[in-house]
Every structure is written in C-alpha cells, then in structure tokens.
C-alpha cells in the first residue's frame, strides 16, 4: 500500500469513526431496528437458512437484535472469532450467548470453534465496514480479517456490508487486497451493488 493510499484510508476512517461516535443513543437504537428489518427482509428474499454475521460494537450499526431474532426463527448464525494468523474462525450463535472483548477491542462470541472454512456453508454473509462505494468496493477498519476471508472463498455467497446511510459513498480508496461486496444494508434500505456481476 502506498503512503498516499494509507493516508487517504486513515483520514476517511477517522472521519467515519468520529461521525459514528456523535450519534445519540436514540439514533443508534433506531438504526439497529432498521438494520434488523432490512436484514430480515434480505434473508427472506434470498431464502437463507444459514448466515454469518458479526457482533456489533457500540458505535456500529446494531446487528444484535437481528441475530437474536434469527436464532429465534431457527436460522443458523455463525459469528466470527479473530485468529492470530489474520484469518477468522467461526462459532454458532446461541440465545444469550457469552462474549468477550477481543485483543483488538471488538466483541467476540464465546463457543466451540468450527474452523475458518465453516463460513463456506452459509447462504449469506453479513460483514462490517467503514464505508462502501457505489461500485461495491468495501473499506474496512484496516485489520484485513474480512478481506482475507472474502478473498479466500472459491464459491462465495452474497456478502452484504452493514453501514449507516451516509457511509454509502461515491468512492473509497482501495488496495489490491480489498474485496468488494454484493451490496449494503443500511437502517433505511438494502442496495445491491454491481461488484458481483
């Protein structure tokens, strides 16, 4: 990654992080409800029986009410667990499941680890992002876990990034390792993007 690309990503991430931190509790709760509604509609539209998702941190668009509702409806939900080698391991979400704070400060589920290839069996991947551009290019938070996972899958299911409405942008700085997504889910809409044609 060139210095100018790295600086552009850092600047955009800092701006997005600050915007997210300025949201009120009421705005976060409203966004989480919107995300739940949009994700449930997406699951129905795709006929998904198994999904991967992530435990949202306090500043991320909330995924927890969706995860709880999905478990109640009998969906199999896989949650990521970061490994030291930069890959993601997976565990099955359970009602009232335990979680810990990872070394990188993000919430992670506690449970039996299924291995990195467990995600190959899901019908839909729901991934975090800092921003996504209209071409479908996803910019994460710089750790590379989801880019490595998405890039390593031979037969990838639809992958949708969960973001706030303002984080669907015209373009994001991109590096050769960055991976596109099928679309985005925001609190008010689900948008399929032209990246996976």
TrEMBL record:
Enzyme Commission code(s) on record: 6.3.3.2
Pfam families: 5-FTHF_cyc-lig
UniProt-listed GO biological process terms: folic acid-containing compound biosynthetic process; tetrahydrofolate interconversion
Top-level division of the source organism's lineage: Bacteria
Catalytic activity: (6S)-5-formyl-5,6,7,8-tetrahydrofolate + ATP = (6R)-5,10-methenyltetrahydrofolate + ADP + phosphate
Binding site for substrate: 55, 60
Alphabetical keyword list: ATP-binding, Coiled coil, Ligase, Magnesium, Metal-binding, Nucleotide-binding
Annotated Gene3D superfamilies: NagB/RpiA/CoA transferase-like
Any one GO MF annotation of this record: 5-formyltetrahydrofolate cyclo-ligase activity
Signal peptide range: none
Enzyme class: ligase
Keyword Magnesium in annotation: yes
Ribosomal protein keyword on record: no
Residue runs in coiled coils: 5-33
Residues the entry annotates as binding ATP: 9-13
Classification via InterPro entries: FTHF_cligase, FTHF_cligase-like_sf, NagB/RpiA_transferase-like
Necessary cofactors: Mg(2+)
PANTHER family referenced in this protein's UniProt entry, alphabetically: 5-FORMYLTETRAHYDROFOLATE CYCLO-LIGASE, ATPASE INHIBITOR/5-FORMYLTETRAHYDROFOLATE CYCLO-LIGASE
Family to which this protein belongs: Belongs to the 5-formyltetrahydrofolate cyclo-ligase family.
Annotated protein name in UniProt: 5-formyltetrahydrofolate cyclo-ligase
Species, as recorded: Microbacterium paludicola
